Amino acid sequence: MTYEKQMKNNINNKMMSIVKHPYFGFFLIAALMLFVQLLRIAGVDVPIQTLRAFGKTMIYIIVGLGFSILLGYGGLASLGTAGFVGLGAYILGYFTNQLGLSIFMIILISIVFAIILGTIIGFISLRIEGMYLAIITLAIAQIINEVFKNWISFSNGVDGMIVNNRFVLFNQYVVLDQNLVFSVIAVILFLVMIVTYNIMKSPTGRALLAMRNSSSAAQAMGISIFKFRLLAFIVSTVYAIFAGVLYLSYIPSTFPGDWTLSLSLLILAAVIVGGSRSIYGIVMGTFLIFGLDLALLQNRDNFGGFFVENPEITIMFNGILIILVIMFYRGGLIRLMNTLIAKVKGIYSKLNKKWREYRYGTDIK
Amino acid sequence: MGEFILDFGIASAVLFVAYNVFKVFFLKYFKNKGKVKGRAINIVVALLIIYTFVIIYQTAKDNYGDRALAYMLLQLINQIPNIATLALATTAIVLIYKTSTTTNFAQSMMATFGAYFAAKTIQYTGARYEWGQTTTVVVALLAGALVAFLLGIFIDSVIIRYSKDKSPVGKQMITMGLVIILTGLMPILFGTNSPTNPLNIPRLFPANDQIPLTFLNTWGIIEMELSMTRHAVYIMLFAIILLALLFSLLRFTKWGLGVRATASNERVASMMGVNTKLITALSWGIAGFLGGVAAIIKAPSSIGPALMVSTQVNGFVAAVLGSFTSFAGPLIASILIPPLQGLLVTLVGAWNFAVVYAIILAFVLIKPEGLFGKKVDKKV
Predict the structure, then answer these.
(1) Residues 169-228 of B with CB under 8 A from A
(2) What is the pTM of this model?
(3) How far apart are CA B51 and CA B20, in angstroms?
(4) For residues A75, A79, A81 and A86, what is the CA-based torsion angle, rounded to 10 degrees?
(5) Contact check, Cβ <8 Å, A326/B351
(6) What CATH number should be reported for the domain holding residue A150?
(7) Fewer CB under 10 Å: which end of chain A, C or N?
């Protein structure tokens, strides 16, 4: 065996090639989630609220990833997100309660819905650009919310909708209870992250970035605005509606009041605070805005119930974070993280050098 | 007489269509072909409007027989407070758009802040709308609007002034962040609405204090007797006076000239000696004031952070419909939208909001520059 071959087969190198793989981080995030659930199943005292919060946060991460393709890559501000997530939830509720379709069928239907809706909004965005787009998407979200409120036979109105039967897979062998859905969401999150990573690093992502910086210049370089803007909207809508389907299969009740402007704004906050162009950034942002609030602060046992009685403080904190990030620190948490990592690495290499100088003398090469 | 007015309206609309058809042919065969599309759009829109009104009238006639016109008028009269609220809110949004080039999503929250303050003052003084205490209520309301004014100036001088160089979408995000901050801040400062902490804004006058609209009968428009609450009348007058004042300020004062100069080009305006900082701050303040008044005259209402959200959405839609580039367009659009929503109740019931938004969306899709906007050419 030659030296090179030996080095190649070195266990350390093999490990490094796995760790350095771009998907490894995504895998870690999903595995961590599954690990928390495993702890609970194994009997460690993890509050059920924390687990539910993590489940919700993962769903919002999926929404945020779609939104980042729209906002961070396409430069298109949309306020319709909450409406789309709600639509996904209601589609699941309607088709399982009224028609009793299987989950795969419903996912297929919801994706078709999402593609149609995304195409419509994409077309609208071709006509109405820039600042007006946020307003128009807000109006669309309002229309969707009116549908939830008024179309009683579809959505059961303001009384809300409850999914009464759990889904079964593979001929009754697997029943999707809440714990299993949690695991499924974790796996799906992993897959969605991979898909998003590939969209972002592909020519599509670069075309979207070019479009974001200047649509006219991008057009002059031969990028079809029509195609990519439509694509951005379709991707983000599919993510949002799919997340809605996951939401209702995890938390089996939905009300029109859940899907208002405030949720859209919080998702926007998560994406911006985390860093609108980075997957890890969005994960961190969503955990900061949703996860921290749902898992820790909304728990009555923590901080003497202070944040349960004053939920406004966390809301205010989110708003302040958005403004601070936009005004002074474009790039958000992920930039902070990268700066910190670079600093730590710098200090480590400095110390290492000093140690070598001390150990071996200065003139060693 | 009533029938005559309706016929007159339809006839004039038909004439408008005929004029446009003539123009299309004229332009097509003799002149510039490029303008044909705009005319064709005008025709389609006018036909749609006529069709909608005829359908609404027919439905009302089916339901109410001879009293259909009176019913429609009643719907319009009921919408007057909404029109006043919406007109003020929309003007505020456009004012900020003109000076700061951003669509202010925090407008509703600034307005609600004023309403909260007014409600807190009313709670503190214990005033109600019984006769004799109207003055106290009015003073409280003006105090609320003034607080909204100060909040507007504060927001501009602390945040907006320093975000001039941000992209339009970035500025929008900042105003969305403001929405979240104010949503959290207001319950902390003023408490939530509860029996021990009642945050209500009363009517200026009791609901049974009605003014009969006798002129409708004496002019022979309808036979039925209609009346309007004194509250609505005063609100309408107040809104008209306020808007007239604002528009004359914009037209005739140095501040108005400054606003128009800043709107056309902020950098050049500041080079020419216009104090753009002061003008922007004042615009934010005045927008806050208008919004505060709008939130307060939305009474009777119990105050919560979501008080003005629907008005805000309506205001944005009106501003898009009327085009952000002019002051008059959004105002006209905001006068049109509430009556349309009121009239559509006969036709579609609770779906009126959704239908109106869908109609406006379709219209804006056909004509992105809005009702009265000019098309702006883009430069690379």
Answers:
(1) 169-170, 172-174, 176-188
(2) 0.86
(3) 17
(4) -170
(5) no
(6) 1.10.3470
(7) C
